[in-house]
């Protein structure tokens, strides 16, 4: 007999590249405006802002390769990101020790109902309605850092229907991955299974049903996501 009053929700897990194993997801943290050119295109000064984070839900991560166009929006934007997966955590992690907590990396998207996010910004309200909707984070398989090495530089890009729309380099992040891990650990207890979406370069824009997005990060290959 179960001790739970309702059926247990399924464990959210992502495939590990080249393995039958899976990476279980605990929490998802997303850093905002972490590339200077993107911060500028969104109307902000990157030189004056400390890092800030919002969250998606674990089950927003979706490895299916399909992105269903969501309801209640007519302006859904793509944002290519590198996801960072943690194998351990804690509080007050030093920048020097932060990379020791990384299990691996994955290609990801932070899909955004930009019109709804904009309405929330104007009212000073949280962004979840624009950011944390179902299947809002298409995600590729997890590549262990033991195989990729630490990913601190390299091309990150997105194309729509074969046309390059976003392109940058991981070394252009304002806050580097070790700094993100250290900063988050001052405010949250990080743990194995946590995922950090590390920001997007400039060039974000809308997609429509029928579009195909192709995302790439050096060391992680590429993946395509169909908008339906």
From TrEMBL:
UniProtKB keywords: Hydrolase, Metal-binding
A GO MF label: acetylpyruvate hydrolase activity
Superkingdom: Bacteria
Keyword DNA-binding in annotation: no
InterPro entries: Fumarylacetoacetase-like_C (IPR011234), Fumarylacetoacetase_C_sf (IPR036663)
Residues in Fumarylacetoacetase-like C-terminal domain copies: 28-227
Name assigned to this protein: Fumarylacetoacetate hydrolase family protein
Protein source organism: Paracoccus saliphilus
């Amino acid at each position: 007999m179960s001790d739970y009053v309702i059926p247990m929700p399924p464990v959210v897990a992502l495939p590990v590249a080249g393995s039958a194993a899976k990476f279980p997801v605990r929490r998802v943290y997303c850093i905002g405006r972490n590339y200077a050119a993107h911060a500028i295109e969104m109307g902000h000064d990157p030189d004056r802002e400390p890092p800030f984070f919002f969250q998606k839900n674990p089950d927003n991560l979706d490895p299916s390769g399909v992105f269903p166009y969501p309801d209640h929006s007519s302006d859904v934007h793509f944002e290519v990101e590198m996801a960072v997966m943690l194998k351990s955590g804690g509080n007050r992690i030093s920048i020097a020790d932060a990379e020791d907590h990384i299990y691996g990396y994955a290609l990801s998207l932070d899909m955004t109902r930009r019109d709804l996010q904009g309405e929330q910004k104007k009212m000073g309200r949280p962004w979840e309605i624009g950011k944390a909707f179902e299947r809002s984070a298409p995600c590729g398989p997890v590549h262990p850092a033991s195989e990729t090495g630490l990913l601190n530089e390299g091309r990150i890009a997105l194309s729509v229907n074969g046309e390059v729309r976003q392109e940058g380099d991981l070394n252009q992040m304002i806050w580097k991955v070790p700094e993100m891990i250290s900063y988050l650990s001052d405010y949250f207890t990080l743990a194995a299974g946590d995922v950090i979406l590390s920001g997007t370069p400039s060039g974000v824009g809308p997609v429509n049903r029928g579009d195909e997005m192709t995302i790439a990060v050096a060391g992680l290959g590429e993946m395509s996501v169909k908008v339906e």
